[in-house]
Design brief:
single chain; 502 residues; alpha/beta; Aldehyde Dehydrogenase, Chain A, domain 1; Aldehyde Dehydrogenase, Chain A, domain 2; seven-stranded mixed sheet; six-stranded mixed sheet; binds nicotinamide-adenine-dinucleotide
Length: 502
């Protein structure tokens, strides 16, 4: 196991307007979920800290030293940040594993993907063309994109470095200044990102990292008149409240919210591949994933066999320490969250669900002080039950049978969410038909939880609005300006008599 010393972790100061300073807001404690030990106690950002960071960001963004850079010049900072992340993957991975309890295998992959995100958006910025629009008169007509100004990025605790990069990279590449507010349970990873960004020489003030309470610094970022956009990833109720406030000042928001994603397993699927993909889809990241495949629909004819094999395989999953390379299911982020997951399972049992495995805290010395929860499978549920409606955000799978395409499409779509969907079948035309009929932002066919920075991602309805990633992901942080320039030199119809008399 590769752990890290206390001294290696960010020291708890915040990165405000280009300077490292102690916050003056409420206290935050980052805890290592594997054993409950304290990583750091720090003071989060207060409203006063946020107000100062915003003022500095505004000045830095308007400064020609940044505002005047050509896209390919801005891209150099993005490439340098990518290099900095790549040179520190192991360190970032250890910090993030201590911050969130995720396996080091996963956090190393997330750090590598964050580097890829910065590199991608640097490349997008310097290769994205502007529009010369179709001429409909004797004017040259152009439409160009400009930065919005100040962007606030508000992120959750489950994959900090990846969700931070997904917002910070396009926002900086577009020429904005960015204030990043990470979640209180995982403040350290974003502060490590700040150290890397600072080392690139990015002009001071353009990037700040302000961990702190949502109701304090989060609210300030949403309400402040100088913040031109909030890019938010988190829970649906937080996102909805934030969107209401944003509407007051007519501010655009991107909302990446929760999910209750269906996975469907047809009788003609490659069963080995499908079972592995289904287990990974729900139990990797201990189910703490917006795209977790938490509702599994199995075609009636193979239902009993599939459930038996899934349960046997789930019992064999290695539940363990985040730094053990053999671990497949690591602890949940926090004891409070473990209690919430357990409460969802208790409610499902009240509603009549049958517990086939898990549903408890693992026993043994190695789990004693960690926020572990066993991977859990429930059957005997209806799609209308709470366990199939509510996002659990933990290692809990509900399994239901389906009859045919029409039935599984109807059940999948009977949900408030619309984030992702998995389809396991050897029949591509069927996957295409079903995938087009399901209301979700991402469809995976014969795979699950695969990501690419070049492919747009986002949700529908309670899963949010807007898309991140992809080339258009840059435009989400820009405003458009159209430009008409007369080419004719012809006299204006209003020129003449009236003007001459004047
Ligand atoms: P959360 O909504 O509690 O918090 C998210 C962020 O919002 C945190 O930084 C929090 O401090 C901040 N916040 C809280 N109140 C605020 C307020 N009033 N104003 C401004 N900011 C405020 O979510 P969480 O528990 O950190 O994360 C889990 C949730 O995130 C799950 O619902 C999950 O599905 C969702 N998520 C979605 C995606 C996606 O891409 N769709 C990805 C990851 C996580």
């Amino acid at each position: 196991m590769t752990d890290m010393s206390f001294d290696e972790m960010p020291d708890g100061r915040l990165f405000m307007g280009g300077e490292w300073r102690a916050g003056t807001g409420a206290e935050i404690t980052s805890v290592f979920p594997a054993d409950g030990s304290v990583n750091r106690v720090l003071r989060g950002a207060s409203r006063a800290d946020g107000t100062e960071a915003i003022a500095r960001a505004k000045a830095a963004q308007a400064d020609p030293a940044w505002r005047g850079l050509k896209p390919h010049e801005r891209a150099r900072y993005l490439y340098a940040i990518a290099d900095g992340i790549e040179a520190n993957i192991q360190r970032i991975s250890r910090i993030q594993s201590r911050d969130t309890g995720k396996t080091q295998r996963e956090t190393a992959a997330l750090a590598a993907s964050a580097a890829g995100t910065f590199r991608y958006f640097g490349a997008v910025a310097e290769t994205m063309d502007e529009d010369l629009t179709a001429q409909r008169g004797d004017s040259l007509t152009l439409s160009v994109h400009e930065p919005l100004g100040l962007v606030a990025a508000i992120t959750p605790w489950n994959s900090p470095i990846a969700s931070d990069a997904q917002k910070v990279a396009p926002a900086l590449a577009a020429g904005n200044a960015v204030i990043l507010k990470p979640a209180s349970w995982s403040p350290l990873t974003a502060l490590e990102l700040a150290r890397i960004v600072e080392a690139t020489g990015l002009p001071k003030g353009l990037f700040s990292v302000l961990p702190g309470a949502g109701r304090e610094i989060g609210n300030l970022l949403v309400e402040h008149p100088d913040i031109a956009k909030v890019s938010f990833t988190g829970g649906t109720s937080t996102g909805r409240a934030l969107a209401r406030k944003a509407a007051e000042k007519l501010m655009p928001v991107s909302l990446e919210l929760g999910g209750k994603s269906p996975t469907m397993l047809f009788g003609d699927a490659d069963m080995e591949q499908a079972l592995a993909g289904i287990l990974f889809g729900i139990f990797s990241s201990s189910g703490q994933s917006c795209i977790a495949g938490s509702r599994l629909f199995v075609q009636r004819g193979i239902y009993d066999e599939v459930v038996a094999r899934l349960v046997a395989a789930t019992k064999r999953l290695k539940v363990g320490h985040p730094f053990d390379p053999a671990t497949q299911v690591a602890p949940l982020v926090h004891m409070d969250h473990r209690d919430e997951v357990a409460a969802h399972v208790a409610r499902a049992l009240e509603d009549g669900a049958e517990l086939l495995c898990g549903g408890a805290v693992p026993e043994g010395e190695e789990y004693a002080n960690g926020s572990y929860y066993l991977p859990t499978i429930l059957t005997g549920v209806k799609n209308t039950d709470r366990i199939c409606r509510d996002e659990v955000f933990g290692p809990v799978l509900a399994v239901l049978p389906f009859e045919d395409e029409a039935d599984v499409i109807a059940q999948s779509n009977d949900s408030d969410y619309g984030l992702a969907c998995g389809i396991w079948t050897r029949d591509f035309p069927k996957a295409w038909r079903v995938g087009r009929a399901v209301n979700a932002g991402t469809i995976w066919h014969n795979t699950y939880k695969q990501f690419s920075i070049s492919t747009p991602f986002g949700g529908e309805r309670d899963s949010g609005t807007g898309r991140e990633k992809g080339r258009q992901g840059l435009r989400a942080y820009m405003t458009q300006k159209s430009f008409y320039s007369d080419l004719s030199g012809a006299p204006h119809p209003w020129a003449g008599a009236a003007l001459e008399e004047a």
